[in-house]
Amino acid sequence: MESMLSRFGGIAHAALRIVSGFMFACHGAQKLFGAFGGLPGMDAKMFSLIWFAGVIELVGGSLIALGVRTQIAAFICSGEMAVAYFMAHQPSGPLPIQNKGELAVLYCFAFLYLATNGGGPFSLERGHK
Q1: CA distance 24 to 95
Q2: Is the CB of residue 107 less than 8 Å from the CB of residue 77?
Q3: Euclidean distance between CA atoms 52 and 48, whole angstroms
Q4: DSSP secondary structure string, 29-42?
Q5: In what helix (H) or strand (E) does residue 49 lie, and over which residues does it extend?
Q6: If we measure between CA atoms, which residue out of 114, 51, 47, 124 comes closest to residue 79?
Q7: Do 26 and 39 meet the contact criterion of CB atoms below 8 Å apart?
Q8: Helical axes 70-84 vs 102-117, angle rounded to 10°
Q9: Torsion of CA 61, 63, 65, 70, to 10 degrees
Q10: How many helices (H) does the chain have, and how many strands (E)?
Q11: DSSP for 7-20?
């Protein structure tokens, strides 16, 4: 079973990159443009923390999804999610399941994987792993 599934490793890598990048970009569009219902109570005034988060999410998520400068974009996005977790979630409780920080933690570690492993198959950048 293991050898059969390992044949799909490249496709799974690309799917992780494309789906997580696209979803992350959608979060940025929510913050910056009020897309997809927006985020009630969040005002992304230019140069506020929410605005910077939205820019990182929209631009970084798009670059990740396309596989362009994946490693640096994923590293920055991973860092943003770590900061978001400790600023917005961790003060509400010690565990992500208690403080509603599961998504921030998952994005952080998915992007950390992509930062260390590159864009993989179907990325637009040359010299991918």
Answers
A1: 22
A2: yes
A3: 6
A4: HHHHH-GGG--TT-
A5: helix 49-55
A6: 114
A7: no
A8: 160
A9: -110
A10: 7, 0
A11: TTHHHHHHHHHHHH
Query: Residue 100 is encoded by which pair of tokens?
Result: 């509603």
- pLDDT by 10s per residue, the chain, length 129: 778 888 999 999 999 999 999 999 999 999 999 888 887 767 678 888 999 999 999 999 999 999 999 999 999 999 999 999 999 999 999 999 999 999 999 999 999 999 999 999 999 986 545
Lookup: tokens for 18: 């494309």
CB of 71 within 8 A of CB of 114? yes
Length of the chain: 129
Q: Whole-prediction pTM value?
A: 0.91
Which residue in the block uniquely carries the two structure tokens 């998915």?
A: 110
Tokens of 83: 């900061």
